[in-house]
Amino acid sequence: MREYTKALEALQAAESADTANAHTSEIHAQELKIQQALFAQRAEETEEQTLERAMRDPEVSKIMSDPVMQQILQQAQGNPAALQDHMKSPIIREKIMKLVNAGIIKTR
Questions:
Q1: Record keywords: Repeat included (predicted)?
Q2: At 107, phi and psi to the nearest 5?
Q3: Count: domains in the chain
Q4: Which end of the chain has less Cβ packing within 10 Å, N or C?
Q5: What is the span of the domain harbouring residue 77?
Q6: Residue 46, H or E segment
Q7: Are 28 and 77 part of one and the same domain?
């Protein structure tokens, strides 16, 4: 259905639910396929187009308008390692992963 962002979110939920790590390799293989498809789909997008597309998602828009998240993102620009500290909070992690999946936060 080419709804890659939703598929990534489902896989991330599956990874959290797989406490016995019985399906880790399968989940990671599917995540890799989806991320490659996303990168291919978004290869020609400018940063402005990415932001415009992502902001059409109500959840992304809500996250981006949250003052706490704005502060976390500003802090991460100056100190990317700080983002790792924030990822320890499950609520913040979920929001950050939503932004990563939407293409707003780039990972290498």
A1: yes
A2: -115, 160
A3: 2
A4: C
A5: 45-108
A6: none
A7: no
